[in-house]
Design brief:
The chain has 191 residues and is of the alpha+beta class. 39% of the residues lie in helices and 9% in strands. The radius of gyration is 23 Å and the shape is flat. The relative contact order is 0.15.
Length: 191
């Protein structure tokens, strides 16, 4: 990279030590976040974590409002019961986007029926299995034996040899592992 002669001295603007701001008269300043910004950031964090869009998220929120429990906890539990999240938590996929692809390509069966919707909501007692084809089985076994050490959730019962998982209970707030304050989401979406 071409540098001027000044950049070979201690007065170089780009390499001066002890400077936390970029050169120039108006450095980028970040003020204190407004209460709206804090609430919006929490909502966006949950949306990105589960991979849902705004319309899907608002639909989940309306469903959570109708339930007779705490709205924030109900919202997180509804999102936790999505099929792509369950496939990821069971270890059949290394990430949620790859779990979505696994489901979309028809590799996942629930109670013996093929399901190709990542947003499918699992219920207690549902048996999730991988398609009997050689490629599907090989893909799921590679993901189960991968280098990522993931603990199986207490609400899922895994059978790695048969590539099956059973939902033995519905997830609770303690099963949600992301650091999120659901009350801020409720305050934002209830406006």
């Amino acid at each position: 990279m071409l540098k001027g002669i000044r950049c070979e001295t201690a007065k170089c603007a780009m390499e001066r030590q002890g400077r936390s701001n970029p050169p120039g008269m108006h450095s980028w300043r970040r003020g204190k976040a407004t209460p709206y910004a804090v609430r919006l950031r929490e909502k966006q964090k949950v949306k990105r974590y589960y991979g849902v869009f705004e319309r899907q998220f608002s639909r989940y929120f309306r469903q959570a409002e109708r339930l007779r429990q705490n709205t924030g906890i109900a919202l997180l539990c509804l999102l936790e019961r999505r099929l792509d999240n369950v496939i990821y938590k069971a270890g059949f996929a290394p990430s949620r986007p790859s779990a979505r692809q696994l489901i979309g390509h028809g590799h996942v069966y629930i109670n013996g029926r093929r399901v190709d919707r990542p947003s499918y909501r699992v219920d207690q007692g549902d048996k999730i299995s991988i398609k009997g084809g050689e490629r599907s089985q090989k893909l799921a076994r590679q993901n189960l034996e991968g280098d990522g050490v993931r603990t199986v959730q207490p609400w899922l019962q895994m059978s790695p040899d048969r590539l099956e998982a059973v939902v033995v209970a519905l997830p609770t707030r303690d099963d949600v592992q992301i650091p999120v304050e659901e009350q801020l989401i409720v305050e934002l979406c209830s406006r």
